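User: My advisor asked me to double-check a structure prediction for Flagellum-specific ATP synthase before group meeting. I don't want to rely on an old file, so could you generate it fresh from this sequence?
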Amino acid sequence: MLGSIDLSEDRPRLVGRLVAYDGLMLEATGFNRPIGSGARVIAADGRAAKAEVVGFRGDRTLLMALDGDAAHASGARVEPDSSGGIADVGPELLGRVVDALGAPLDGLGPVATTEHWPLAGRPGNPLDRDRVTQPFDIGVRAVNAVLTAGVGQRIAIIAGSGVGKSVLMGQMIAGAEADVVVVGLIGERSREVSDFLATKLPGPVRQKSVVVAVPADHAPLLRLRAAMRATAIAEYFRARGQKVLLLMDSLTRVAHAQREIGLSLGEPPTVKGYPPSALGLIPRLVERAGADSRTGGSITALYTVLADGDDTDDPIVDSARAIVDGHIILSRSLAEQGVYPAIDVGRSLSRVMADVVGPEHLAAAATLRRIWSAYEENRDLILMGAYAAGGDPIIDEAIARRPDLLAFLRQTPKDRVSYAESVKALIEAFGS
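Assistant: Sure, here is a fresh prediction for Flagellum-specific ATP synthase from the sequence you gave:
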């Protein structure tokens, strides 16, 4: 009779009662637990539904449901769950696909991890963050040559829907030189999750990868926890001194999840309906990536950001661009011309490039950007035939070399161009 009783706690557990539920937010009495604590709400069918403490209202505790389809009833029992803010980590995760709660999705049985890491990360000293001084080979010629990434850099890939963000991420996974790849598929279509695993993570790459996937139809708190779990897993491998590539698709869906949570808690909406917590979440998440001078490990992070209606002044786009170390903007007009990856070189930027490349490489990249910008600034005049040849030597050069520029950018998804090959091609084509 006593075999099923858990005696791990040496004090009485606080058990509350459910008094209100509006489809997303639960209110409980007699459950005085701190924010971020986990809870189990015993549903009418006897199943324990998970929830998390997100706030207070007087003597009532506000919880966010993790199981949106649970059959809750008034007066239901609310029990503490000690596993709420902890992520199970370990080398056993490599090659596996898990959900926001760490449960396996790949049908390969339970993940036998023995170590733990806080979902919200561990507080760090900013002086322990190492400088970005080494180039990171992405495998994409345009990025390696003109937007050179560094080990420990955080990059935002900004584009509207259907312009090729996920395809570019797949190219980067296949071509990146990393010890561990952590992928967070947050708020995407379920079809895209299975497609990503089948096409973007082939055999050899899959064995060094960890995928955290939560589709768009799941509860907002699950989408938020999935982003935190993916980052926590990356932090664990960085603490072991490994070079980690973290990819999150997409940061916008994470902000949307926090918007739902914030509005449910009564936060005032600001620009485009985003409460302050949604905009504040982005730096808290992004700042956890980077290089660690103590362990020698690093997290090079790529975050996709959806520009709704191709609006690159969207508040989420603006917040992400302000906190990352570089951004890649994909152009719909280039995609319509069949140029993939459709990287708008003139509007994209790597803030660490000057610290990781040589002067000859930097000068050749500047030449390419100058030619690109000269064409884009005068595109309408050129296409209308209003520009007369010989009026400006820079524009003349931009028109003459436009095919060379587009050919340099083009790369099929299955091709991999190393960093050395990219730099050599850039210097040969645009060097002095």
